[in-house]
Specification:
Mean pLDDT: 76
Largest sheet: 4 strands, mixed
Shape: globular
Distance between the termini: 24 Å
Structural class: mainly alpha
Number of helices: 24
Helix content: 55-70%
Strand content: under 5%
Radius of gyration: 27 Å
Length: about 600
């Protein structure tokens, strides 16, 4: 099963979780309604009130929790007591985890996720977020201090597998659902510990009849609270049951994927062996129970384990037949000596097929791309203030007077001085490192405030539009950065994301027409490229749009709508885009960057090809 199929399976699993949640809610309602019905002699009003009360507590609590988590993985990390790790850290263990995360992210075509450290001596990790653009990787202090590089790489690869398989979205929804189910018990404890005793205390200070009545109300609230606590305990039972049912098989898959990514079973196997030999001394936050299913290994003890036994996981990892993990024969690539403009046509297609894959060849290319970035630029990319200037420098034409005047108006003297230094270094960077530089800048740029992000994106757009023409790379850079920052100009996956290509054929045609014109010298070449792509995608009746209708703005709006495609349909679209640019066996660096940007906007990370 490939990336696209995993993502669609993840959506189907979400429906199963929602169904289980509804079943659990009805069972909890029954536990509340039946005793109320017996006590009230089946008074319909009392039954309706108790049912509505139960529904409101569970439903509103789940929605509120999901609303709190809507901003992405960093909210989960901070809820668990995590602190974002600075990219410029001088600590060797922290640099090690940063380097591993950077290599894997760039190799797989994802934005580099921020790393959060939880100050806990246990060995554990998690990935959280809705999409690769807002994902974070969390690791405990014990994880980075006690594991060697191979073991830590195995753990990080396991977490990247959760990102690529769509598990993160399921995991966040599970947090909201479990919290909703547990909310009845939480409400009961509030009645028992706070509201009831407060009324009793107030009534005890009064000797009037009202005081006696208040005492009765206080005791009734305490009794009601105890009843809700019991119901909540049963609700928690169902919540943990759902948590365990959803999580366990996903952990086996993520373990196997980690071995596939790293080609090193001893890495993740060694990490699991260490966990198996360490007593339970975790001091993780109290909220870890809600997030137990997200961690690399069991974070808190529970009757229903959210993870398979360590011994079983190790046995499976060490018993994996490595030949079964090789690329299937129909996907294997034989690249000869013919490389056009630095890329082979098969390398693009293979990268589309292997979306989000992390293999030796991709990691080697990522390391080389990072190596090609000078140390001063690497340092600048780790700081939000200077990372902005590096992004500006990628767009700036030093001979453009309009851009120079614009920057004089928009930037301070200090910023202009720093920008001039960066421009001298950027000229020496290799073009193949441009997209990796954007990916490396993502964690720092996300540290900007919402207002600063708006100003930053507007400045980028103003620089690009100085000459009234937005070039291909200008669109690539601005689109990728907007996506990394979670800009609202791109819709979220959850908004009607289950479409097929047919109903969105007009938007498909806009994307393919724009690609066809951008790589052609005349109308005839553009039409051949377009027809080649249309044949690949199966929309044979469509015709190429006029060149005036194929702007960077039009492709942006089209991709915005195409985000609602099912993932297997996105795969077809990316194959068609690939067919459009390789029909003449000539792929430029700019075309390769465009394919990667389209994949990024569609939340289909494309591994680094070359």
């Amino acid at each position: 099963m490939n990336f696209y199929e995993h993502q669609d399976r993840a959506r189907k699993r979400t429906k199963i979780i929602v169904f289980l949640f509804i079943v659990a809610v009805f069972m909890i309602m029954a536990m509340v309604v039946v005793p109320v019905g017996v006590v009230s002699e089946w008074n319909s009003g009392a039954i309706v009130v108790s049912a509505v009360f139960c529904l409101l507590i569970v439903g509103i609590s789940a929605l509120v929790k999901l609303g709190q988590l809507n901003d992405g993985g960093h909210v989960v990390a901070e809820m668990l007591g995590g602190t974002e790790l600075q990219r410029t850290s001088s600590n060797s263990s922290e640099r090690k985890v940063n380097n591993i995360v950077e290599e894997m992210a760039i190799a797989s075509g994802m934005p580099v996720p921020p790393v959060y450290i939880i100050e806990d001596d246990s060995i554990n990790a998690f990935a959280a977020g809705w999409t690769p653009s807002d994902a974070v990787i969390g690791v405990t202090r014990g994880c980075i201090e006690q594991l060697n590089r191979d073991e830590l790489q195995g753990v990080i690869a396991h977490e990247f597998s959760h990102i690529s398989h769509g598990d993160m979205r399921i995991n966040i929804r599970l947090i909201g659902i479990i919290f909703g189910i547990m909310a009845l018990g939480i409400t009961g404890w509030i009645f028992v510990r706070h509201i009831g005793p407060m009324i009793l205390y107030s009534s005890s200070r009064s000797r009037s009849k009202e005081g006696a009545g208040g005492a009765g109300i206080g005791l009734a609230i305490i009794v009601l609270g105890l009843f809700l606590v019991i119901c909540g305990a049963i609700g928690t039972f169902f919540g943990r049951l759902i948590q365990a049912a959803v999580s366990r098989q996903r952990e086996f898959l993520a373990d196997a994927s980690a071995v596939q990514y790293t080609r090193n079973p001893s890495g993740i196997g060694g990490a699991l062996r260490q966990i198996g030999g360490i007593p339970d001394q975790s001091t993780l936050a109290k909220d870890a129970g809600q997030c137990n299913h997200m961690f690399f290994s069991q974070a808190v003890s529970s009757i229903f384990a959210s993870h398979p036994p360590i011994t079983e996981r190790v046995a499976r990892i060490e018993g994996i037949d490595m030949s079964s993990l090789q690329t299937p024969a129909h996907e294997q690539v034989v690249v000869g000596d013919a490389r056009i403009s630095g890329f082979s046509s098969t390398s693009v297609k293979t990268s589309v097929q292997e979306a989000s894959a992390i293999e030796d060849k991709y990691i080697d290319r990522a390391r080389q791309a990072i190596h090609n970035i000078s140390n001063p630029i690497r340092s600048a990319l780790g700081n939000s203030w200077s990372a902005r200037l590096v992004m500006f420098s990628l767009l700036i034409d030093t001979q453009d007077v309009q851009q120079k005047n614009l920057l004089n108006d928009l930037l301070s003297n200090q910023e202009r001085t720093e920008l001039r230094k960066i421009l001298l270094l950027i000229d020496k960077e290799k073009r193949s490192s441009r997209i990796p530089m954007i990916d490396l800048a993502a964690p720092a740029l996300k540290q900007l405030s919402s207002e600063q992000q708006v100003v930053f994106v507007k400045t980028l757009t103003d620089i690009a539009q100085c000459d009234n023409v937005v070039s291909r790379f200008e669109w690539v850079l601005i689109s990728v950065i907007k996506k990394h920052l979670g800009n609202n100009s791109f819709q979220k996956l959850s908004q009607g994301a289950n479409k097929k290509l047919g109903p969105l054929s007009k938007d498909v045609v806009v994307v393919l027409s724009t690609l066809a014109y951008s790589g052609a010298e005349n109308q005839a070449q553009a039409e051949r490229a377009f027809n080649h792509a249309i044949h690949e995608i199966g929309l044979k009746k469509e015709r190429i749009r006029e060149v005036k209708d194929c702007t960077m703005e039009s492709i942006h709006h089209a991709l915005n709508k195409l985000q609602r495609l099912r993932f297997v349909e996105k795969e077809k679209l990316l194959f068609a885009c690939e067919s459009c640019v390789v029909h003449d066996d000539h792929i430029t660096v700019a075309e390769a960057e465009t394919i990667r940007a389209i994949g990024d906007v569609l939340d289909c990370p494309i591994p680094m090809f070359g």
